[in-house]
Amino acid sequence: MSVLRVRVYYEDTDAGGVVYHANHIKYFERGRTEWLRELGYEQDRLMAQDLCFVVRALQIDYKLPARFNQVLTVETRIENMKRASMVFEQTIKNADQQVIAHGMVTVACVTLSSMKATAIPDQLKEDLLGAL
């Protein structure tokens, strides 16, 4: 599992000071990206190798509002991994460890030039599974 802390900025909120719903998706993306980075995989280097991950499906349950200036925790773990895709379970929590949002995100590994599914490289798969 990977844990990322994010602060809610004014730009993340609506007129009422509550995080706009679409920004939870950005927090989830940052969580997945930072986990890859922690494992030594930079997105731009993967793209230079003609490889990228694209979101294929997304389900979010919003539980509580997140508000301006709160520090949130984004927890990311792999729920399931197949040959060319992964399902991430992601949770955003507030400082009191209350769940703000829970998401299941399916990403597909694709060849960037053709946008066709390709197998997740063995070493990356091994590193991700080893980080569980």
Structure characterization notes:
The chain is α+β, with helices and mostly antiparallel strands and 132 residues long. It has a single domain, classed as Hotdog Thioesterase (Thiol Ester Dehydrase, Chain A). Helices cover 23% and strands 40% of the residues. It contains three helices and six strands; from the N terminus they run E-H-H-E-E-E-E-E-H. Strand 3 and strand 4 form a beta hairpin. The mean pLDDT is 95.
Question: Descriptors for this entry?
Answer:
elongated; alpha+beta; Thiol Ester Dehydrase, Chain A; 132 residues; 6-stranded antiparallel sheet
Topology:
Elements (H helix, E strand, L loop, with lengths): L1 E6 L15 H16 L4 H6 L2 E12 L8 E11 L3 E9 L5 E13 L4 E2 L4 H9 L2
Antiparallel strand pairs: 1-3, 2-5, 3-4, 4-5, 5-6
Short description:
The chain is of the alpha+beta class. The protein has helices at residues 23-38, 43-48, 122-130, and strands at 2-7, 51-62, 71-81, 85-93, 99-111, 116-117.
